[in-house]
Design brief:
The chain is mainly alpha-helical and 257 residues long. It folds into 2 domains: 132 residues, no CATH class; 124 residues, no CATH class. It contains 12 helices and no strands.
Length: 257
């Protein structure tokens, strides 16, 4: 049975964390660190939920381990990539379009909104944690899908970092490695991770948690992921137009002739 009180406690936890992030943004005059906070929201929701589960189970420990592994890697990678005083160009654009008083608006437009989205998406983690159903084949399938997605996303991020670190690649398009098979292999890996989490929650009987991977997939494809990144990238990198013609957007596939 869905326990709303436990689920709400997790919202309070990440709400306080978002408030702290907003206060830091006022000091820095920069909201980019919300990217690093994103994955940590899910660690907070998971461990907060687990605190109220009286009997620890294999599934609980599995979910806590996997979400921590995913969150720490992603947080470290984004913190390293975004290190510096300059604001992410996407947030700089949001700031420009919402002056005056963006410092105040960012409390709900950036930090509050992302905390709320994370809370909704974390329902699959809650569904897996608040279950006493025995471990079954869906747990193992979810674990395998998570591990595949984690590997795919990590390799894609590493390949992109190596590409960007080479000054010879300025204004060029990465179309080798995993990026040869889709234009956003890191997002594809992320999608697999969340469908893996859903399979684990489904193993615990939380079929209703399908809202979690569905919303994450929608975000990656239509809102903050593929669509936003490709909105003006062809203007900044002319070769990207040819890359679009030859390479799948999301699901990996062989390059088109």
């Amino acid at each position: 049975m869905f326990n709303w009180s436990i689920y709400v406690y997790s919202l309070v936890a990440i709400g306080l964390f978002a408030l702290l992030g907003w206060i830091i943004s006022l000091i820095r005059d920069n909201v980019t660190h919300i990217n690093s906070m994103w994955s940590l929201f899910f660690v907070l929701t998971s461990f907060t939920s687990a605190l109220f589960v009286y009997e620890g189970s294999v599934r609980v420990y599995l979910v806590l381990t996997l979400v921590t592994l995913w969150a720490v890697r992603l947080c470290a990678y984004l913190s390293w990539r975004n290190w510096g005083p300059h604001e992410d160009r996407r947030y700089a654009a949001i700031r420009h379009n919402n002056e005056p008083h963006f410092w105040l608006k960012s409390a709900y437009m950036v930090f509050g909104m992302q905390a709320l989205l994370a809370w909704i998406i974390s329902i699959s983690l809650y569904g897996a944690i608040d279950s006493n159903a025995p471990v079954n084949v869906l747990d193992y399938l979810g674990l395998l899908l998570f591990l595949f997605g984690f590997f795919w996303e990590s390799v894609a991020d590493w390949q992109l970092t190596q590409f960007k670190d080479n000054p010879k690649n300025t204004d060029k398009v990465l179309n080798t490695g995993l990026w040869r098979y889709s234009r956003h292999p890191n997002y594809f890996g992320e999608c697999c991770i969340w469908w893996g989490f859903y399979l684990i929650s489904l193993a615990g009987g939380a079929w209703w948690a399908i809202v979690s991977p569905t919303l994450m997939t929608l975000l990656l494809l239509k809102i903050s992921g593929v669509r936003l990144l490709e909105k003006d990238i062809s203007e900044r990198r002319p070769a990207y137009a040819e890359y679009i013609k030859s390479t799948n957007s999301f699901i990996p596939g062989l390059p088109k002739a």
